[in-house]
Amino acid sequence: MKRVLVVGDSIAYGAWDTEGGWVDRLKRQMHRRVIGSGSSDKIQVINLGIGGDTSTGVLSRFDDETVHRISAKWSLVIVIAIGNNDSRMKDGVIETLPDQFRNNLTTIIEKARRYTQDILLVDLPPMADDVVQFGEKQYTNERIA
User: Fold this and answer.
1) pLDDT tens by residue, 70-111
2) Tens digit of pLDDT for each residue in 40-66?
């Protein structure tokens, strides 16, 4: 039995996606797999994505989110899907400088290793447009890369 925790931002959460985003699609697929196996192959997917979150936010909530979902019955997999919001600019200032993002991500991985060695990182997806402006917030594919 596996429990998959996905920590991340609105892309993980599934914001503005009528199908619930990639994590919810994964969860539905795992439900089908469990049912198809007669419940002998249990995989539980828990979506811990929060819209607008950054690596700093994930780092601050990581232990609280994880410790309450540990069970001796379930092996743990942690999926980290974060970074696009770290690259955004607000009023001309980058949300999280690259060195801070690297430090945050390294610390998140170190914390995850306390719970499991099964850790996956999801690469940052590019946007359809090279520059996206949401009010005072700006995202660019160049900064995401």
Assistant:
1) 999 999 999 999 999 999 998 889 989 999 999 999 999 999
2) 778 999 999 999 999 999 999 999 999
